[in-house]
Amino acid sequence: MTGTGTAMPGEMFHMGWFIGRGYGLPTWNRTWTGNATPREWVRGDYFVEWAQALERACFDIMMFADTAYVPDTFGGSAKTYLNQGHMTPMHDPASLVPVLGYTTKRIGLVATLSTTFYHPYALARLAGTLDSMTGGRFGWNIVTTSSRQAAGCFGVELPEHDERYDIADEFVELAEKLWASWEPDSVAIDEASGIYAEHSKISSVDYEGRHFRSTGPLNVQPSPQGRPVYVQAGGSPRGIRFAAEHAEAVVCMAKGAENMKAFRDSVREHAMAIGRDPDTVKVLYLIDPVVGETQHEVDARVAIRDASRAGGLDGTLTMAGYSAVGGLDLANIDLDAPLADYEPEEGHRAVFEQMMAVGSTLREVLPTLDMAGTDLAGTPDQLAGQMSELIQEVGGDGFLIGGWDATRRRIAEIADGLAPALRRRGLMRDGYSHHTLREHLLEY
Question: What's the CA gap between 439 and 443, in Å, rounded?
Answer without folding.
Answer: 6
